[in-house]
Amino acid sequence: MVGSALVRRFQSEPGVELVLRSSRELDLTRQAAVETFFADEKPGTWRSSAAARVGGIHANNTYPRSSV
Fold first, then answer.
1. Using the 8-state DSSP alphabet, how is residue 8 labeled?
2. Burial class (CB in 10 A: 0-12, 13-18, 19+), 47
3. Banded pLDDT at 67 (limits 50, 70, 90)
4. Cα–Cα distance between 1 and 12 in angstroms, integer?
5. Buried/exposed code over 2-31 (b: 16+ C-beta within 10 A; e: otherwise)
6. Which of 6-10, 53-57, 59-63 has the highest mean pLDDT?
7. C-alpha separations of 4 from 1, 13, 34, 37, 39 in Å
8. 35 close to 41: Cβ distance less than 8 angstroms
9. CB–CB of 50/3 below 8 Å?
10. Whole-model pTM?
11. Alpha-carbon span 67 to 15, nearest angstrom
């Protein structure tokens, strides 16, 4: 949700080039894959990741402050 909102917002911004990858294309939990991505793509000076594990209210109640 947050990532989608950011993409929609910045797609209409003049001069902004988005370099996007899905979680299937780039596993952010694999450091080597992330380093290769940055080496290959050479993104500009501003970078953001809105990656998250989402589980909804049930998950938040069941696993508070957890990385699960």
1. H
2. exposed
3. low
4. 18
5. eeeeeeeeeeeeeeeeeeeeeeeebeeeee
6. 6-10
7. 5, 15, 20, 20, 25
8. no
9. yes
10. 0.62
11. 36
